[in-house]
């Protein structure tokens, strides 16, 4: 008789295994092999039942409930959804924690937001162009602009000593994901991270679950195909946002400056939407030319 051996997943520090065998009184049909020196905390069935069983079953029921209600798994059988609950776990992340990112394709897990929201943030490389006669500017690295060409920009005959080109990375928010949405299905997340905004509950599902249901994860991946814009599009959005912040700052200054009653104008007179903190470097918004 031949045996088929399949690598399911790696278990890291803080993870557990063997719960299902204890709860369902079944023989384990997998083998755990250490990849290096390891330490384990082992519980007997009695200890597990008295200490952890209720919490584990509550968590398992929450995961099953999520998969049963998810529109992405409507065509899957109840048995398959129970298997997904078996092969997943709930993880909690605090505000601004990086959950997943900087990977080019499918990894060992697919992530679902059970509660809270996350932001997709992409690192975009710019070149800061500083000239004595123009407002500082950020040009996308690799663009064909004359400003981004060191020979053309730095060797102009006027103000040569004051000209500078400096590489500069910015982290741009692409969009916000909310409860019920997912990530990690194979989309290109190079230089891109998923970050928790506030407290977030994530269901981490082992991707091996889809080995017999590849069309499901393929469909989920197709739905995410155009989720993350190109760096060129993000650079255009960045510049559009800069112009909007520049306009808002001008409006605020005009309101305070030209209020008819002397010394009565304050920032309380400015609409709240105009006072939100800019995500654009201030020297790209407030610029006065040298005289």
From TrEMBL:
<feature type="domain" description="Cyclic nucleotide-binding">
    <location>
        <begin position="1"/>
        <end position="52"/>
    </location>
</feature>
<dbReference type="InterPro" id="IPR014710">
    <property type="entry name" value="RmlC-like_jellyroll"/>
</dbReference>
<dbReference type="InterPro" id="IPR000595">
    <property type="entry name" value="cNMP-bd_dom"/>
</dbReference>
<dbReference type="InterPro" id="IPR018490">
    <property type="entry name" value="cNMP-bd_dom_sf"/>
</dbReference>
<dbReference type="Pfam" id="PF00027">
    <property type="entry name" value="cNMP_binding"/>
</dbReference>
<protein>
    <recommendedName>
        <fullName>Cyclic nucleotide-binding domain-containing protein</fullName>
    </recommendedName>
</protein>
């Amino acid at each position: 008789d031949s045996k088929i051996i399949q690598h399911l997943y790696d278990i890291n520090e803080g993870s557990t295994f063997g719960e299902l065998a204890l709860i369902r009184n079944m023989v384990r049909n997998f083998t755990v092999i250490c990849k290096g020196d390891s330490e384990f905390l082992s519980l007997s069935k009695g200890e597990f039942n008295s200490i952890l069983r209720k919490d584990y079953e509550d968590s398992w029921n929450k995961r099953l409930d999520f998969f049963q209600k998810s529109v992405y798994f409507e065509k899957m059988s109840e048995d398959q959804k129970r298997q997904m609950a078996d092969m997943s776990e709930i993880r909690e992340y605090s505000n601004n924690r990086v959950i997943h990112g900087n990977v080019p394709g499918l990894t060992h897990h697919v992530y679902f937001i059970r509660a809270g929201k996350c932001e997709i943030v992409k690192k975009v490389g710019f070149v800061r162009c500083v000239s004595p006669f123009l407002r500082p500017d950020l040009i996308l690295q690799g663009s064909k602009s004359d400003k981004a060409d060191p020979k053309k920009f730095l060797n102009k005959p006027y103000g040569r000593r004051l000209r500078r080109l400096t590489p500069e990375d910015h982290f741009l928010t692409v969009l916000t994901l909310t409860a019920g949405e997912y990530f990690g299905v194979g989309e290109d997340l190079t230089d891109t991270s998923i970050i928790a905004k506030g407290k977030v509950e994530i269901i981490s599902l082992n991707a091996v679950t889809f080995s017999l249901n590849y069309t499901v994860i393929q469909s989920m991946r197709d739905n995410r195909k155009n989720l993350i814009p190109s760096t060129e599009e993000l650079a255009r959005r960045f510049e559009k946002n800069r112009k909007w912040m520049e306009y808002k700052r001008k409006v605020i200054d005009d309101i305070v400056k030209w209020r008819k009653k002397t010394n009565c104008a304050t920032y309380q007179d400015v609409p709240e939407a105009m006072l939100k903190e800019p995500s654009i470097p201030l020297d790209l918004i407030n610029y006065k030319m040298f005289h």
